[in-house]
Design brief:
Ribosomal Protein S8, Chain: A, domain 1; 9 helices; alpha+beta; 19% strand; three-stranded antiparallel beta sheet; 2 domains
């Protein structure tokens, strides 16, 4: 399997890592070869072994390109049930100022809203460019998507926190049975 992935120029350094450490980690653990063209921001991924590991490598590269640290992106290797999801918000807001406002609501003051969403759902969230990326278990990703929809629609942050708390309680009661 060969895949070509575009990556923003400012994320190439994160993908390569110090002395190529991140690139080497992905190649070794995912059984792939990576050719990174830093001039045009393209990554050629060629799977050498297990195709499912090649798909995971693709998700890791995309996660890094959407603002995740290599450490958070590599969590995708630890658990086969983790999902990597991208929510495109470029169509929201008629102006760049409106998009910045929406992103600000999702991030919260000093990152507090994003951190609470991560804590309540045991997931990772990255707000980067015109996207919101999430790494988490399927039901937790759905909870985050619901919270983000509420924030986009203008719901008060307190209501969103209550929604997250309610979902966390529901999840705990399910796991007790």
């Amino acid at each position: 399997m060969i895949e070509h992935i575009r990556i923003p120029p400012d994320r190439i350094g994160s993908l390569i890592g110090v002395d190529g450490s991140v690139k080497e980690f992905i190649e070794k653990n995912c059984e792939v070869d990576l050719v990174i063209d830093s001039e045009n921001g393209s990554v050629k991924l060629e799977s050498k072994g297990d195709p499912s590991k090649g798909l995971r490598a693709s998700d890791i590269i995309k996660a890094i390109s959407h603002g995740f640290s290599p450490q958070n992106a590599s969590k995708l290797l630890d658990d086969d049930e983790l999902l990597f999801t991208i929510i495109d918000i470029s169509h929201l807001g008629g102006s760049p100022k409106e998009l910045t406002r929406i992103k600000g609501r999702i991030i919260g003051k000093d990152g507090s809203t994003r951190e609470l969403m991560e804590e309540f759902t045991e997931s990772n969230i990255s707000v980067y460019g015109e996207t919101i990326a999430v790494i988490g278990h399927p039901e937790k990703v759905r909870t985050i998507e619901g919270a983000i929809d509420m924030l986009i629609d203008g719901a008060p942050h307190g209501n969103v926190y209550s929604y997250l708390e309610k979902k966390r309680r529901e999840e705990k009661s399910k796991s007790e049975f």
